[in-house]
């Protein structure tokens, strides 16, 4: 079949919450997509991707081993761009340092495959705000110049500490590799991604942000400071924007909602009176760290425009949670 003018994009880790939505948007935008899934995933685990609109014509699925970067080469071959979106595997029984080094080696191997392909023009690495926010200066607002302090993360030991440490270290290696080898690398530091989903099951991230509605908020310790959120569709749109915009470079924070746990409680109470939302006084709030606001001015200055607000995030998430029987 004849390729579209936009060409092909490889998205690693296609069964994830963000990546599956991204694949859907890439296809809608006219791209052909190669995506990778873990080779030990049950065959049915990726079947929902094949049911996405136009997937039968525009999507190819490749089985890969994250510990063997060579296995990604067939998926990368012939692609104009690669979006690295697969999550780090923390399920194995190796020690923390071994897991981190394996993850770094795997990503660098994929970058080497991109370099060798001769067709890949840009690589987008999906990072996280966890590589930005954990700073010791007590800043109220952080931007792309901020890098999380690894020792500080270890001391705080917040939710997802190893994830934030790994993402921080990988992101530095990715940018360094790009600079040394002439690979056009862009990193997306997104806030907590939230909203609807096309995956058959609700992701952990959505469950976390739905806690005040679903009733499992008693299991969550909220940060003193702000909760930073971004709609899943805006993350996908931002990645496509950064894929297509010629002049972008380096890191880009993607976030369009910063609010305190108290403000979130008040918002949910006012918008969804049918649910029993806890008041701020009922929440577990840690004062060990005051999470700063995320500034996405760099992304906006590049020409990107957010499409969705907090209402859209929760309306979409609630609708999908109803579809899978959580509400």
Helix content: 25-40%
**Taking all residues together, what is the mean pLDDT?**
94
Number of strands: 14
Strand fraction equals 15-25%
EC number: 1.1.1.219, 1.1.1.234
Family: Belongs to the NAD(P)-dependent epimerase/dehydratase family. Dihydroflavonol-4-reductase subfamily.
Pfam family, one: Epimerase
Catalytic activity: a (2R,3S,4S)-leucoanthocyanidin + NADP(+) = a (2R,3R)-dihydroflavonol + NADPH + H(+); (2S)-flavan-4-ol + NADP(+) = (2S)-flavanone + NADPH + H(+)
What does the model show?
- With 327 residues, this protein is of the alpha/beta class.
- Helix content is 39%, strand content 20%.
- The protein has 13 helices and 14 strands.
- It has helices at residues 17-28, 47-50, 55-58, 73-76, 96-117, 150-156, 161-181, 204-209, 211-214, 232-244, 261-271, 297-301, 310-323, and strands at 8-11, 32-38, 59-64, 81-84, 122-126, 141-142, 185-190, 192-194, 221-225, 227-231, 250-254, 257-259, 284-291, 293-294.
- Strands 3-2-1-4-5-7-11 form a seven-stranded parallel beta sheet, sandwiched between helices. A three-stranded mixed beta sheet has the order 8-10-12. Strands 6-14 form a two-stranded parallel sheet.
- Strand 4, helix 5 and strand 5 (122-126) form a beta-alpha-beta unit.
- It is globular, with a radius of gyration of 19 Å.
- 40% of the residues are buried.
- The model has no long low-confidence stretch (mean pLDDT 94).
Summarize the structure.
Helix content is 39%, strand content 20%.
């Amino acid at each position: 079949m004849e390729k579209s003018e936009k060409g092909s994009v490889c998205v690693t880790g296609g069964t994830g919450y963000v990546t599956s939505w991204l694949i859907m948007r890439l296809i809608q935008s006219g791209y052909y997509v190669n995506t990778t899934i873990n080779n030990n995933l049950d065959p049915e685990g990726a079947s929902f991707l094949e049911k996405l609109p136009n997937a039968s014509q525009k999507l190819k699925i490749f089985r890969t081993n994250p510990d063997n970067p060579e296995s990604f080469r067939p998926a990368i071959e012939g692609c104009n761009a690669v979006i690295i979106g697969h999550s780090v595997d923390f399920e194995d029984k190796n020690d923390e340092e071994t897991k981190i080094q394996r993850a770094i080696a795997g990503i660098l191997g994929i970058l080497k495959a991109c370099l060798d392909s001769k067709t890949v023009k840009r690589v987008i690495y999906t990072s996280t705000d966890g590589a930005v926010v954990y700073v010791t200066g007590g800043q109220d607002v952080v931007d792309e110049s901020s890098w999380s302090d690894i020792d500080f993360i270890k001391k705080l030991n917040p939710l997802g500490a190893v994830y934030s440490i790994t993402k921080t270290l990988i992101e530095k290696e990715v940018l360094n590799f790009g600079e040394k080898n002439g690979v056009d690398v862009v990193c997306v530091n997104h806030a907590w991604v939230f909203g609807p989903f096309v995956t058959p099951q609700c992701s952990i991230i959505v469950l976390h942000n739905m806690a005040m509605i679903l009733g499992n908020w008693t299991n969550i310790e909220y940060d003193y400071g702000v909760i930073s959120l971004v709609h899943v569709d805006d993350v996908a749109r931002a990645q496509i924007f950064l894929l297509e915009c010629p002049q972008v470079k380096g890191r880009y924070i993607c976030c369009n909602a910063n609010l305190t746990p108290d403000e979130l409680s008040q918002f949910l109470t006012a918008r969804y009176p049918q649910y029993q939302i806890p008041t701020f006084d009922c929440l577990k709030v840690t004062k060990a760290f005051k999470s700063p606001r995320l500034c996405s001015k760099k992304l906006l200055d590049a020409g990107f425009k957010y499409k969705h607000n907090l209402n859209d995030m929760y309306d979409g998430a609630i609708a999908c949670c109803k579809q899978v029987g959580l509400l």
